[in-house]
Write a structure and sequence with these properties.
GO molecular function: DNA binding; zinc ion binding
Distance between the termini: 49 Å
Order of helices and strands: HEEHEEHEEH
Number of strands: 6
Strand order of the largest sheet: 1-2
Largest sheet: 2 strands, antiparallel
Radius of gyration: 20 Å
Protein name: Protein hunchback
Domain C2H2-type: 1-25, 26-54, 55-82, 83-108
Family: Belongs to the hunchback C2H2-type zinc-finger protein family.
Strand content: 5-15%
Shape: extended
Number of helices: 4
Structural class: alpha+beta
Function: Gap class segmentation protein that controls development of head structures.
């Protein structure tokens, strides 16, 4: 009745209904983190509280906790600089560097 989503299983509806509230029933037992789904809690535990780094770079000794971090790391092995300043010729491998560039070079 709040939105148009429909679910076959009642449990899926209950999980979805959390989207419409501020409730965060899943609490990390190690820190103050809380979230709306068990999958988000498991991801938090693996990234934040685990020493495991299952994603190994094939070109060097670096290993990463997440596939996303490995993807970012792989840019150091290429000439790719996918983040282009729209106001000058500056390019960067990382979006954060482009944001810093914009603040330093193109704001008054």
């Amino acid at each position: 009745e709040i939105c148009e989503y429909t679910f076959k299983a009642q449990s899926n509806l209950k999980t979805h209904m959390l989207v419409h509230t501020e409730e965060r029933p899943y609490q990390c037992e190690i820190c103050e983190f809380s979230c709306k789904s068990i999958s988000a809690l498991n991801k938090h535990r693996n990234i934040t509280h685990s020493e495991e780094r299952p994603y190994q770079c094939e070109l060097c000794e670096i290993s990463c906790k997440t596939q996303g971090n490995l993807k970012i790391h792989m840019l150091v092995h290429t000439e790719d600089k996918p983040y282009q300043c729209e106001l000058c010729e500056y390019t960067s491998r990382h979006s954060g560097n482009l944001k810093t560039h914009m603040l330093v070079k193109h704001t008054e």
